[in-house]
Design brief:
Oligomer: single chain
Number of helices: 1
Organism: Streptomyces gilvosporeus
Distance between the termini: 52 Å
Keywords: Signal
Low-confidence stretches: 13-24
InterPro entries: DUF3761 (IPR022236)
Protein name: DUF3761 domain-containing protein
Radius of gyration: 19 Å
Pfam family, one: DUF3761
């Protein structure tokens, strides 16, 4: 009986662990050479507005004109008044 309970608890923990990993934000591509952006709910894609990043690893330009090299879109430019332009 104890073995069945332990197996059931282990299955539940395994399911919860994989669900938590799936909800994490996906990593952005390392280089911004595709000249298109993934869908973002804030700001706009610089490529579609004929703007260029300062180099191929820049992720976004913040509203205070600083540049971001964030690997994940979540929290990008959060201390710089938000994202103005996305490059990835």
């Amino acid at each position: 009986m104890k073995a069945r309970i332990a197996a059931g608890v282990a299955g539940i923990l395994l399911a919860l662990g994989s669900a938590g990993a799936a909800s994490a934000s996906a990593a952005l591509p390392y280089y911004n050479t595709a000249h298109r952006c993934v869908h973002h709910t804030t700001a706009y894609c610089g490529w579609t507005h004929h703007k260029k990043p300062i180099n191929k690893t820049e992720t976004a330009k913040c509203r205070d004109n600083t540049h971001s090299y964030s690997r994940h879109s979540s929290g990008t430019c959060s201390h710089h008044r938000g994202v103005a332009i996305w490059w990835k």
